[in-house]
């Protein structure tokens, strides 16, 4: 088998699965899978001998579901009842699955949902259990809703410590566990909530965090895109420092760290209308952990009046890593040179909600 690339593109009307070789210049796509269902989360699981794809969909009629494929999207199975669901004693139902993330252990999969809850599977995504320590947290009744709803959109298991995980919710902020989910504490010191009155803009929790990421080789450092603000933490989220200086806007949704360089990070700034400033699609890169920024646009359109949402930007792990950006106009662009140049991978899809890619054997 030759080394190749799999690209999952979740949209408001189904999932598309792309394949390419290692050069990633030409793509073939299958889809729509789960037509007319919203796909907010995707996961390419390369931990075992067999690559598995997971996708979280939501239907007005059928509810939320986790779909699994063991043949790179040729066929899919699902769990009766939806896999991710609240226990009988909880008066709530899962509306959307916003996040699917592999854990440290081989069969662990984390899920973040709307309404705001985190679940964990220990059987590869067939069944999930509610993280009760977070659901029963006294802050939960005070968490608000972002424009897109209340959801745990970020789940970051610690790469070497199975008992530690960092999560984020809009609106509620960053929370962290160090005892395998038994307790969770807010980790928002230094993050501004500029929608609150003067003098109250640095609360212990209640921030509208949009996305958090980190590099597995340097787990104590995290990068965060807020609703107004871009931040870095060098002490495992205990404190946060602004790194927004030099960007055309501190508002945006995604933040992605380069898979081979913990100092290189990417954002996609948006203006007041939730489209790129001046309508120009541009990725911004920092090679010094947010100390300075540079604009990247070669191959991206000079006119784009659509947003890039929090999970519609990601990277693969080829030696020459690929970067991917999907917009709500149904287009996905790919770069294989650290963002210097871009080419279109697919266009004319429904609005893109999530992209996930990985190097695999095809």
UniProtKB/TrEMBL annotation:
SUPFAM superfamilies: Oligoxyloglucan reducing end-specific cellobiohydrolase (SSF110296)
InterPro entries xrefs: WD40/YVTN_repeat-like_dom_sf, Xyloglucanase_GH74
Gene Ontology BP terms: xyloglucan metabolic process
PANTHER family: EXO-ALPHA-SIALIDASE, XYLOGLUCANASE (EUROFUNG)
The protein, known as: Exo-alpha-sialidase
């Amino acid at each position: 088998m030759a080394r190749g690339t799999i690209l999952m593109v979740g949209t408001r009307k189904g999932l598309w699965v792309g394949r390419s070789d290692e050069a990633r210049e030409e793509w073939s796509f299958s889809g729509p899978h789960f037509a007319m269902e919203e796909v907010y989360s995707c996961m390419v699981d390369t931990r075992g001998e067999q690559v598995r794809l997971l996708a979280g969909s939501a239907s007005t009629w059928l509810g939320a579901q986790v779909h699994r494929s063991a043949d790179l999207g040729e066929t899919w199975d699902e769990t009766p009842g939806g896999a991710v669901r609240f226990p009988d004693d909880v008066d709530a139902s899962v509306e959307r699955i916003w996040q699917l993330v592999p854990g440290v252990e081989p069969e662990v999969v984390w899920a973040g949902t709307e309404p705001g809850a985190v679940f964990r599977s220990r059987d590869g995504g067939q069944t999930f259990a509610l993280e009760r320590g977070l659901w029963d947290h006294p802050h939960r009744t005070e968490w608000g809703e972002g424009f897109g709803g209340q959801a745990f959109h970020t789940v970051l298991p610690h790469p070497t410590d199975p008992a530690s995980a960092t999560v984020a919710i809009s609106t509620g902020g960053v929370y962290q566990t160090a005892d395998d989910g038994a307790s969770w504490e807010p980790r928002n010191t230094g993050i501004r909530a500029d929608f609150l009155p003067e003098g109250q803009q640095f609360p212990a929790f209640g921030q509208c965090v949009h996305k958090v990421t980190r590099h597995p080789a340097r787990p104590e450092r995290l990068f965060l895109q807020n609703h107004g603000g871009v931040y870095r933490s060098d002490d495992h989220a205990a404190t946060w420092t602004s790194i927004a200086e030099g960007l055309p806007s501190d508002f945006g949704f995604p933040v992605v760290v380069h898979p081979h360089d913990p100092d290189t990070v990417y954002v996609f700034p948006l203006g007041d209308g939730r489209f790129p400033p001046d309508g120009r699609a541009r990725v911004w890169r920092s090679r010094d952990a947010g100390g300075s920024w540079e604009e990247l646009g070669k191959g991206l359109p000079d006119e784009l009046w659509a947003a890039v949402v929090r999970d519609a930007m990601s990277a693969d792990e080829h030696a020459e890593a690929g970067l991917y950006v999907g917009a709500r106009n149904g287009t996905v662009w790919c770069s294989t040179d650290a963002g210097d140049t871009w080419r279109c991978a697919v266009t004319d899809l429904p609005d893109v909600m999530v992209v996930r890619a990985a190097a695999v054997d095809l």
